[in-house]
Amino acid sequence: MLEPPVPIADPMRRHRMTLAVALILLISAALRLWQVATPPDYMFDEVYYAKDAKAIIDGRVGPKAPLRWEAGDEVSWPHPEMGKFAIAAGILLFGDRAFGWRFPAVIAGLVMLACVYPLGRRLGLPPPWALIALGFAAADTLGIAQSRIATLDVFVGAWSVLCILLALRYAQEGRQKRWLVLCAAAGGMAVATKWSGGLALVAAAALIFLCWLRDREPAREDEKTDPAYLLGDVPTARPSWVQALPGALLVAALFVLIPAAFYILSYVQYFAVGHTFADWWELQRQALFFNLHLKATHTYASAAPTWIVDYRPVWYYFNGAKMYRGVIAMGNPFLWWVATLGLFAAPVLAILRRTTLLLPSALIVALLYLPWFAATRTSFLYYMTPVAPFLAILAAAALVAFAGSARLPRRGALVMAATAAATAVLWDPVGRLASWVFWQLPQRLSPAFGWVGVGVGIFLALLVVIVAVSPRSRGWRPVLSMVLAGAIVGIAVAFLPIVLNIPISPGHWSHIMWFPSWI
Q1: SS3 call for 374
Q2: Rg (Cα) of the chain, in Å, rounded?
Q3: Cα dihedral sign, 229-230-233-237
Q4: DSSP character at residue 476
Q5: Distance from C-alpha of 397 to C-alpha of 130, rounded to nearest angstrom
Q6: Based on the number of CB atoms within 10 Å of its own CB, is 10 exposed (0-12), middle (13-18) or buried (19 or more)?
Q7: Rounded distance, CA 499 to CA 496, Å?
Q8: Most C-beta atoms within 10 A of its C-beta, which of 192, 299, 421, 484?
Q9: Residues 395, 338: contact at Cβ < 8 Å?
């Protein structure tokens, strides 16, 4: 587990893989930039962050009576400044308009996406499956939506993903200190954007520790008979805890000092315009109280355990007349549901079948996601932004485990592409069926019938899972894994209009609102 990735030996194959990654990133950039300035007005929390970025540019962050600790005209003072600095950079480059607010989010979203392929490789996926993981992440509607709105979560996501990638590079490539310093710096930028960015440092530290455990192999028998070994002149291949202590202290020190430095740096303008350290300390105290005890009611608030199953998305914008336009923050349902199964399957497969491929990505998902279960404040599904790329990797790993082979089946890419195209074209009957089960029948018969439909759906899903994992299905599992992968990518097409703010008919809209909680 967590072995360094084996490079692709064939130059032509390596070149084709590079071109495929570049093509996915290019298509993703086009989707994120397409009419990114619509709607032209502030959307959702842009009313806070984009306005505060303009206040930063104007220097309107100085002390004001009676609350000297507040950052002047800023409203989003409970969060550090780095993310707002990024939005301010876009305004400086392109003006105080929608494109200027949102362009930095596009860049952050692409950085986050660009890390998925190397992360997949370092987390144990072979090249074709790491490429599929990248395709999953590119088809994740939450990632697209977050890359087109001037809020902080996409910046937290970009720095968090980069932090974890650098931690793996440090742990898997000889523990070169420059990668550790860069890892701590990326984690510091995440924390200096939102406090929740600290979860990336926790995940990075856990991966470094696991790689150290992996490297603690017993000395070989022939080494134990070497006189130099017996005299203690040659270090053992199994370093003791005492020998590892200096390295552990270095990691701990860098993971505290460097993020703290970046966090203080995010307030450089705050101090430059006249705030004192006492003001700053009171600001931190007020921010802590706000982040722990915010109880404001919100239509789209939801509990953390429901996020991973896409229970309650967040509508950032909606305009309904003859044609509907909207922007929704929701995960790709097929992707997130497969990843959820993978999260539960990871420990089971590790215990029963000694299959550890799912464990690294499942661990990262758990460390970034499960702490939110303890949140006492009002919370939203889009807090999953830093987690989503690892859901894509986990889903790909789950399909590898299901297929029973890391090799793609013959013509597997063709099967996946054909299934993606078919899903993109034929999603409408699925939407009509869901609408009939969850909307029309409950209205005609009884509201309770909707729960009957849910029960039937869960039963059928479990039946499919049982049949799929039965020993008799081994022969066609590789092909079925390609079908599932294609469906994950293809279903994103159905939801793109309500991510890219494309006008659609009320009928189209109703057919993709599969559950009442999605409205």
Answers
A1: helix
A2: 25
A3: positive
A4: G
A5: 9
A6: exposed
A7: 5
A8: 192
A9: yes
The interaxial angle of helices 177-191 and 198-215, nearest 10 deg, is 150
Identify whether the C-beta of residue 492 lies closer than 8 Å to the C-beta of residue 141: yes
Maximum distance among all alpha carbons in the chain?
86
Mean pLDDT is lowest, of 100-114, 401-415, 495-509, for: 401-415
Burial of 515 (0-12, 13-18, 19+ CB in 10 A): middle
Query: What is the value of pTM for the model shown?
Result: 0.89
From the list 47, 95, 84, 128, the residue with the least C-alpha distance to 409 is 128
DSSP 325: E
Contacts 24+ apart (CB under 8 A), 68-71: 68/275, 68/276, 68/279, 69/275, 69/279, 69/280, 69/282, 69/283, 69/286, 70/283, 71/270, 71/275, 71/283
Would you call 375 exposed, middle or buried from its count of C-beta atoms within 10 A (0-12, 13-18, 19+)?
Answer: middle
- Please report which helix (H) or strand (E) contains residue 87, including its range: helix 82-94
Helix (H) or strand (E) holding 316: strand 314-320
SS3 assignment, position 279: helix
Q: Is residue 477 within 8 Å of 468, Cβ to Cβ?
A: yes
Tokens linked to 171: 């742990």
Q: What is the pLDDT of residues 207-217, one digit of tens each?
A: 999 988 877 65
Q: How far apart are CA 62 and CA 59, in angstroms?
A: 7
Whether the Cβ atoms of residue 384 and residue 142 lie closer than 8 Å to each other: yes
First and final C-alpha spacing in the chain: 42
Q: Quick check: 300 pLDDT over 70?
A: yes
CA distances to 51, 226, 232, 498 from 47, in Å: 6, 70, 65, 20
- Tens of pLDDT, residues 337-355: 999 999 999 998 888 888 8
- Per DSSP, the residues of 428-443 read HHHHHHHHIIIIIHHH
Q: How far is CA 419 from CA 138, 351, 476, in A?
A: 17, 33, 15
Residue 225 has pLDDT above 90, yes or no: no
pLDDT recorded at residue 226: 45
Confidence of residue 228 (pLDDT cuts 50, 70, 90): very low
Say how many residues make up the chain: 519
Q: Collapsing DSSP states into helix, strand and coil, what is residue 314?
A: strand
Rounded to whole angstroms, the Cα distance separating 165 from 123 reads 10
